[in-house]
Amino acid sequence: MKVEIQGKNNEPTWRFIVNPMGGGGAVRKRWPKIEALLRASGIAFDAVFTERKYHAAELALQAIAEGRRHLVAVGGDGTAHEVVNGILRQTTCPSEEVTFTLLPVGTGNDWVKTHRIPKNPKHWVEFLKNGTTAFQDVGWLTYHENGREQKRYFINVAGLSYDAYVAKRAEAYKMQLSSTIFYLFLIFRCLFEFRVPRIRVVFDGKTVEKLLYTINIGICRYSGGGLQLVPQAIPDDGKLALTLAGHISKLGVLLITPFFYSGKIGWHPKVSMFQVEEILVESADSQAVLVEADGEFLGEGPAKAGVLNGKLKVLKN
To answer: pTM of the full predicted structure?
Structure first.
């Protein structure tokens, strides 16, 4: 059995998993000052750096195998997504024994809103010292990539149809996406390219089949830089928040955009909101249903989603 490395006064030694390209390269620029701040604060830590896509998951798995039980992702929601996948995939210990948090230096920084994690590095250091732990749910998602079924875990929001289309297009603009304004521009640009597919959604004994502009499945409520497409999400209730948005005209989407941010999206007559335990999503025409999770484009359907209750131990304010 591995024994966790301890710092002075038996404090845990945090393993920082740093994505230098996070926030369009902002992490690489800011890390030296952040590292100096951590050392000056007396926090026991060390750091490793990602070199490729999904490397953060591998580094998390390796850290846990070495006996580490306190992990920090440094980057954005995508980096957090990868680290949590490492925590959930490893077999060294129960996932609930690993404490996880995010030092947000990304674009949207949406997951941290739920747990009131500060973005200012000085305030964040105090949060790391004084934050409390809680357990949140983790979503699981199966999908297809190059014809093969794959599985991912997610801690925030998964999106299918339009949201996933935007995530796929965003892959070509990683550096520019450090700008929230550019991200909003991309969302509206994609709106005029996207063709709404007919989709079949099965959940809790119900079947919905119709043209669906977007499908959102949430553990937490914020995504896309502050959008609230699943405002009914509760991170520890053992349920998935499900929002289905029917075929809304392009002008209609533009007009209701303020409701995306206010959490009042359910007001629209073509929007339906549920809390469910398991979901199946598949195409009902010739158009593939695209899939993303925590802002990362994954592949296409058919897709299934479910929830693991209280499987992630997080630091929160």
So the answer is: 0.91
